[in-house]
Write a structure and sequence with these properties.
single chain
């Protein structure tokens, strides 16, 4: 969903992988892929391996005149919608959260069927949401 986040979701192993039985979701900088200046002006970026269901979130154009920047952070969005679901029971998550600007990690349980329409109309259960900076950080 396009909800004002500063990240691009990819299927890159730079952003998500399993090692020693643990899932790692790692934010990286878009500038490491396309260059710092391209984030801000004169570049069209189409994300290969974009995992967003909203295809407009899979590409961006930077233009300093209009103030349009390409999302500066790349991360992963993982879904089990076509492979796993839970009706009753307990969900337990142990997670180490990233810290820093532009980061807003979240773990959500989404509905299998969008009975009332696409997100957010059919709801979500937030297991966890946080921001990457402490409450004293002035820019948030």
């Amino acid at each position: 969903p396009r909800n004002g986040v500063f990240e691009i979701a990819t299927d890159s192993t730079n952003n998500s992988y399993v090692q020693d039985g643990k899932l790692y979701i790692v934010p990286t900088l878009t500038s490491d892929v396309i260059g710092y200046n391209n984030v801000f002006n004169g570049y069209t970026y189409n994300v290969s391996g974009c995992t967003s269901s909203n295809h407009s979130a899979c590409g961006a154009v930077s233009n300093s005149s209009s103030g349009s920047v390409i999302n500066p952070v790349m991360s992963a969005r993982l879904s089990t919608v076509n492979s796993h679901s839970i009706k009753y029971g307990r969900v337990e998550v142990t997670a180490k959260l990233p810290r820093g600007d532009w980061l807003w990690p979240a773990i959500w349980m989404m509905p299998v069927n969008n009975v009332y329409g696409p997100w957010p109309a059919s709801g979500e259960i937030d297991i966890m949401e946080a921001r990457g900076n402490g409450i004293s950080y002035p820019a948030q």
